[in-house]
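Input/output pair, single chain:
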Amino acid sequence: MSTLVIVRHGQSQWNLENRFTGDVDIDLTSLGEQEAHRAGKVLKGMYFDACFTSILKRAIRTLNIILQEIGQTYLPIIQDAALNERMYGDLQGLNKTETAQKFGADKVDQWRRSYDIAPPNGESLKDTANRVIPFFQRHIAPLLAENKTILIVAHGNSLRALMMYLQHITPENIAHTEIQTGVPKQYLLDNELEVVSVTDLHE
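Output:
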């Protein structure tokens, strides 16, 4: 049995401002830092063999805060752009409400929620999955197959893509699947890396 914990980074400045962030390198807010500390407190007592994160500072800082809280700052940390947030193209930096008013709420909802329709010059969730899943299979799955305990701190859409893969969530159902900032989600996996249980970890 192996354990995988995934955490979406704490609130970022553009989360707070209701803007499309995508792969723009935006930092955490003070609330985001608090969320990271809470996640670390929840994970105290759990030993991780390795950690993975994106190359974006909001995820890296969230991971560093978590590791400080659990007292495991010496762990191997692998940073890779494959785990970056979905790139929102022409929408990056735009206010979500104003964008819905400009293009129509249905169109913006389609860009945000559909599996394979990308915003203008951006990535769809399918595109995101096409980089997240191969990275997981190459670098993380072999560790889990050795019954290692792994922590991934990344982003809403990169983690939703991974959740689709692990939990066999359909493209239709992923549209209604959210992942909260700063709330660890724990997967217990069998020897075939099939999910035995999924638990959101709260204080």
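Helices lie at 13-16, 30-43, 57-70, 96-103, 105-113, 125-145, 156-167, 171-174. The mean pLDDT is 96.
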